[in-house]
């Protein structure tokens, strides 16, 4: 199906994106340079974490958003576009916010933090994909990375909050920011727009639920790496283990409750796409502080129950499959 935008607008949207990318390249030319530290084992470990985070962001969130009937593959492409743009914007923002400390070098730690800072943008995208064009998504990326970066800077400098804890706030930040953008886009629609067409754009497709499940699997596998990415080395073990146990329990809880809440005992795939990850979100901030696995398991159980209960109260389409 061809684009619904007029030819003039179809030419302007990519040009604006290219101009923004050229502007980023010029800013990197004048303000960012590489460090000169030798390669060591710590650097290789950091690179492995970056690989996990990138897989989680590009494939996990990308395929998770692929279940839209009319925007399945374009949603994956837009997700990758926002990730690439958001990482660059976050690196530049961190450079400008740390101007007084003269930290103008780019290293793997900068990319790791920038990738995590872009996660809230990908969460927000779930509320606007199918409703926003390329330029609107680019503006959202710039605004949200700036807002979240300023929030991180204020929390660290004023309230002395650790980077790990601030990053875990990104789940809620991204959710509410996405709702705000969706509300603004809905109010900007011209009068007379066919509501049936707008509703069709965000409807789910049963055939694409398999790809959305693939995204959920990627997120599930790499969520321990996300929760432990900025944790001190001595606390990483607890962070990984607690995240895994919480994810495992929320998965069992979500699957069981989804089948229990269905009249025919079937599993609702919308529940599975979202609720199985609830445990990882719930233990995000305290994952390195939990001393025993049963606490993480209780959090995972509670998060799974709340997620299924919330999903039942929202007007999601019922994509059910049998056992």
Structural account:
71% of the residues lie in helices and 2% in strands. It has 323 residues and is mostly helical. The strands form two sheets. Strands 1-2 form a two-stranded parallel sheet. Helix 3 crosses helix 4, helix 9 runs antiparallel to helix 10 and helix 11 packs across helix 13. The two termini are 35 Å apart.
Task: Draw up the topology in text.
Elements: H1 7-31, E1 33-34, H2 41-64, H3 72-97, E2 105-106, H4 108-128, H5 134-157, H6 163-168, H7 170-187, H8 195-201, H9 209-228, H10 236-261, E3 267-268, H11 269-275, H12 278-282, H13 293-313, E4 320-321
Parallel strand pairs: 1-2
Antiparallel strand pairs: 3-4
Largest sheet: 2 strands, parallel
Roughly what fraction of the amino acids lie in strands?
under 5%
Q: What is the oligomeric state here?
A: single chain
What is the share of helical residues?
over 70%
How much is the radius of gyration in Å?
20 Å
Mean model confidence by pLDDT: 82
Low-confidence stretches: 316-323
Molecular shape: globular
Number of helices: 13
What distance separates the N and C termini?
A: 35 Å
- Number of E-type strands: 4
Adjacency order of strands in the biggest sheet = 1-2
Q: Give helix and strand order, one letter per element, not per position.
A: HEHHEHHHHHHHEHHHE
Please state the structural category: mainly alpha
């Amino acid at each position: 199906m061809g684009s619904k935008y007029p030819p003039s607008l179809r030419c302007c949207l990519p040009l604006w994106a290219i101009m923004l990318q050229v502007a980023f390249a010029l800013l990197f030319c004048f303000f960012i340079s590489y460090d000169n530290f030798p390669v060591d084992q710590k650097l290789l470990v950091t690179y492995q974490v970056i690989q996990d985070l990138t897989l989680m962001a590009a494939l996990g969130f990308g395929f998770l958003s692929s279940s839209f009937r009319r925007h399945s593959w374009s949603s994956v492409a837009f997700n990758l576009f926002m990730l690439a743009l958001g990482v660059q914007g976050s690196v530049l923002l961190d450079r400008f916010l740390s101007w007084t400390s003269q930290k103008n070098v780019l290293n793997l730690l900068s990319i790791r933090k920038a990738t995590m800072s872009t996660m809230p943008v990908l969460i927000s995208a779930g509320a606007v994909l199918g409703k926003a064009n390329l330029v609107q998504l680019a503006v959202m990326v710039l605004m949200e990375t700036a807002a979240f970066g300023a929030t991180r800077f204020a929390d660290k400098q004023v309230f002395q909050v650790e980077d790990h804890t601030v990053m875990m706030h990104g789940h809620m930040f991204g959710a509410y920011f996405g709702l705000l953008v969706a509300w603004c886009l809905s109010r900007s629609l011209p009068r007379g727009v066919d509501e049936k067409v707008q509703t069709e754009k965000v409807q789910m497709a049963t055939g694409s639920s398999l790809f959305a499940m693939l995204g959920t699997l990627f997120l599930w596998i790499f969520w321990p790496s996300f929760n432990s990415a900025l944790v001190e080395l001595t606390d990483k073990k607890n962070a990984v283990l607690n995240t895994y146990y919480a994810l495992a329990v929320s998965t069992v809880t979500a699957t069981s409750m989804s089948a229990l809440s269905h009249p025919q005992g079937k599993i609702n795939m919308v529940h599975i796409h979202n609720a199985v990850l609830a445990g990882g979100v719930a233990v995000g901030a305290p994952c390195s502080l939990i001393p025993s696995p049963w606490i993480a398991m209780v959090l995972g159980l509670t998060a799974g129950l709340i997620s299924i209960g919330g999903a039942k109260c929202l007007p999601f389409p019922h994509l059910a499959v049998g056992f």
